[in-house]
Design goal:
By secondary structure, the protein is mainly alpha-helical. The protein is built from eight helices and three strands. The chain starts with 5 loop residues before the first helix and ends in a 6-residue tail after the last helix.
């Protein structure tokens, strides 16, 4: 794991912990992270998602030492600055990095989302992760979570109550 660049490790952690689409990961800004005395959060949805305490030092180190921050992107607000001034990393570049290390982003994202629905209800996950409650309810249903789709179905326009 030490041979993997820190930026790739951070991006992979975000994918594997939160099921975040690669395009969203690529376009994250440093302002999407908030550090407080009680921990660190990442803004992916309408509610900040907590970063596990064990990973806070890694994220803190990366935020202070981002790649390309010493070049033309010195003052970049992108979490993953591109080698091109003012731009974030191309999502395809992240996708290729993941594949090199055997991470298939779509499969990883779907597995993560399905697993998370066994821990939290779809509505809460939607607020934390930036997905719709309906998408999270579908993942919960795939996981066999009892009544997982009920709250989301109530919000669908064609649902019968």
């Amino acid at each position: 794991a030490d041979q993997v660049t820190l930026s790739t490790r951070i991006a992979a952690i975000i994918l594997l912990l939160y099921g975040t689409p690669v395009g969203t990961i690529a376009s994250l800004r440093i302002t999407d992270f908030t550090a407080t005395p009680t921990g660190m959060t990442i803004n992916l949805g309408t509610q900040p998602a907590p970063i596990p305490d064990q990973l806070v030092p890694l994220f803190t180190h990366y935020l202070a030492n981002r790649s390309h921050s010493g070049t033309m992107n010195k003052n970049s607000f992108w979490l993953f600055p591109s080698t091109n001034a003012g731009q974030h990393i191309n999502p395809n570049t992240l996708q290729m990095r993941f594949k090199i290390f055997g991470i298939h982003s779509l499969a990883a994202r779907n597995t993560t989302l399905t697993d998370l629905t066994q821990e939290l209800d779809p509505t809460s996950l939607a607020a934390l992760l930036g997905y719709s409650a309906q998408v999270m309810a579908r993942h919960a249903a795939r996981a066999g979570t009892t009544m997982a789709s009920y709250p989301a179905m109530l919000n669908e326009p064609n649902s019968q109550r």
